[in-house]
Amino acid sequence: MYPILIEFGFFKIFTYGLLVATGFLVAILFASSRAEKEGLDSQKVLDLCFYIMISALLGARLLYVVVEYKYFWAYPLEIFKFWKGGLVFYGGLILGVLVSLWYLNRHHMPVWKTADLLAPSIAIGQSIGRWGCLFAGCCYGKETDAIFGITFTNPRSLAPLEISLHPTQIYLSLNALFIFIFLMILSKKKVFDGQVLWSYGILYSIGRFLIEYFRGDDRGFPVEQLLSTSQFVGVFIFILSSFMLLVLYRKNLRNHPS
Q: What's the predicted TM-score (pTM) here?
């Protein structure tokens, strides 16, 4: 693949960084464009997206550094070179949610309604950003004999070279795209606020959990050789999302008895 898209001497544009930035931009613009239709202040939504973007990048990088602490202990300056690859989505999600709750409370914005607006944007941003992983070679898959396996040849790639691997980056991108389509349909038919957000949590945690079994990169195993870091976090996201859906559904029934 092409880890570096453009290079002139010391000037380099990393494909990973460009596509992740594109994913964020598309997500922000999409959320902002839908804000007024959902009865929300588009400027406040835009500002919220900016805070989410910064916190998500920091959280995603921080969790990656924690997982790969041995490498970064030896090469500490590499911590700041996130544009070359190395972001863990769940880390970004956790910090992004915390910062979002702070912002929503400060500006007195409806939490679940705003969250439902943002959820599809997160999914489409992920779908685009995962192609950056493909070009950089990070998040690569296990060796495979399948006809759809991909082989990395660029020496700057983070993936093993000259070996047919599962295209897990594409799996992750398509998973996010499917979730985006589902959430957009659900947005028009939802029964209560928060339904879209927590449906996203369930769908993403399931898809990510399954795709992790095809991953071949070293990403940390809290439960050695059984659950990766993302699977471990995903279990809690799934339980929390299911619980919150049930709570909000029952609350809606009480407020709107048939």
A: 0.87
